[in-house]
Structures are given as structure tokens and as C-alpha cells.
Amino acid sequence: MADRKMTLKELSERTGLSEVNLSKLKNSRVKAIRFSTLNAICTELKCQPRDILEFVYDI
After folding, report:
1. Are 46 and 16 in contact, with CB atoms under 8 Å apart?
2. Residue 1: per-residue pLDDT
3. How far is CA 6 from CA 2, 9, 50, 56, in A?
4. What pLDDT score does 3 carry?
5. Residue limits of the HTH cro/C1-type domain (predicted)?
6. How confident is residue 2, by pLDDT bands cut at 50, 70 and 90?
7. What integer is the mean pLDDT of 29-33?
8. Contact 49, 55 (CB under 8 A)
9. Domain residues of the chain, as ranges?
10. Distance between CA atoms of 55 and 45, rounded to whole angstroms?
11. What is the pTM of this model?
């Protein structure tokens, strides 16, 4: 988002996702994400999931 100079509010308006949900995703306060949410974000940001997600082993 920062690379695209887009705020959470703008991304929220463009994707239909709530700012609260986007903020939780941005700050790693979620354990799961719906494919529809990921699709909406990646479509708007014109990126691939690998560009915005990081896999962390749960040990």
C-alpha cells in the first residue's frame, strides 16, 4: 500500500472491506484470511498473494 501511496481508507473504499479488518490484516492481528478478502486486496493492489503474505511456521 505504501508503495502505491494508498491509505487504508482508500483501500477500504475500493475493495468494500472494512478499515478495521484491513488494519488487523496490516498489523498481523489475524490468524486466517478468506480467499475472497485476499482476492479483493490483490486485485486492487495489482499484486500476487506472495507479495503481501509471509508464511510463518507454527511451532
Report:
1. no
2. 63
3. 6, 8, 19, 26
4. 72
5. 4-52
6. low
7. 92
8. no
9. 2-52
10. 20
11. 0.85
